[in-house]
Amino acid sequence: MTQATAIIVGASSLLSREIAKQLADQGVELALLAQDPDSLQEFADSLPTQVHLFPLQIVETQAIISTLEEVWQQLGGAHLVLVNTGLNSYDPQLPWGPEQDIITVNVQGFAAVCNTAFRLFREQGYGQLAAVNSIAGLRGGPSVAYHASKAFATNYLEGLSMHAQRLKLPITITDIQLGLLDKAAMQQSRLWLSPPDEVARQIIKAMQGAKRKVYVTKRWRLVAWLTKLLPEFVYNTRHWRTKAERLAAKAEGKK
Ligand SMILES: NC(=O)c1ccc[n+]([C@@H]2O[C@H](COP(=O)([O-])OP(=O)(O)OC[C@H]3O[C@@H](n4cnc5c(N)ncnc54)[C@H](OP(=O)(O)O)[C@@H]3O)[C@@H](O)[C@H]2O)c1
Can you supply one Gene Ontology CC term for this chain's record (predicted)? Predict the structure, then answer.
């Protein structure tokens, strides 16, 4: 295996496609896993390197494990597995259904992918597992299962990293702590919202620098630091509402 190869799990999102594009521009051969791989065909054809498309059934543990093994065989191994899957939703009534779906995708599916990638890297003797995670995992939050699932991801990745060190294997585990980009978009905050190509550039730089943990974009490190510092009664008063919504709520006499 001379040419660099990368597997992107959850390749249909805008961010994944931007990362795939930038890696392909560097000559990296790609395997892209998406729920509907056919929808990526045109995109794959537009890239300058060899691209293989595979289905992603993250809710069926055995199916995703078999797919990863098949991808591995077809590529003859891989240098990088990047996991960029995730499910999020918010309903103040906290119905169980969406909570269960989030746990299935973000905890069970995530662990199955990372566990399999780690095993394949261990057999290969080297490699890098990177995951797009979220600073939401630093504390609990309104999307209860989502925040908790991101804490699970952080600890799972740390455990794998410790395991690689104990095995004395050159397997790098990179935890990409993404800022709350959706929230920034909702707030139309230009200060915190970075264009996808810049987010992808910082992620690739961190992976190539073999970082263990990185905040993307860099300025979210400050929010992460503050988030950890705030006492719960202050942390719990933060509201991600637009100025107009805040003013309307104030007029109605709500907090
Ligand atoms: N967006 C943000 O503001 C933000 C902020 C911080 C962290 N993050 C993290 O970034 C990662 C990606 O998030 P995103 O916002 O880019 O999400 P996204 O655009 O919705 O992409 C999520 C990916 O997960 C896949 N996925 C979701 N449910 C699935 C299922 N049941 N089966 C198979 N695949 C499934 C999607 O595949 P399909 O498209 O094929 O359904 C998609 O590729 C997540 O880990 C998220 O926590 C995002």
Answer: membrane
pLDDT band, very low/low/confident/very high, at 187 (cuts 50, 70, 90): low
Residue 208, classed as helix, strand or coil, is: helix
Q: Which domains does the chain have, with CATH numbers?
A: 5-251 (3.40.50.720)
* 134 three-class SS: strand
Give the residues surrounding ligand 1 with Cβ less than 6 Å away.
Answer: 10, 12-13, 15, 34-36, 56, 58-59, 84-87, 105, 132, 134, 178, 180-182
Cα distance between residue 218 and residue 199, in whole Å: 9
CB-based contact 242:188 (threshold 8 Å): yes
Contact 31, 71 (CB under 8 A): yes
- Residue-wise pLDDT for 23-37, tens only, equals 999 999 999 999 999
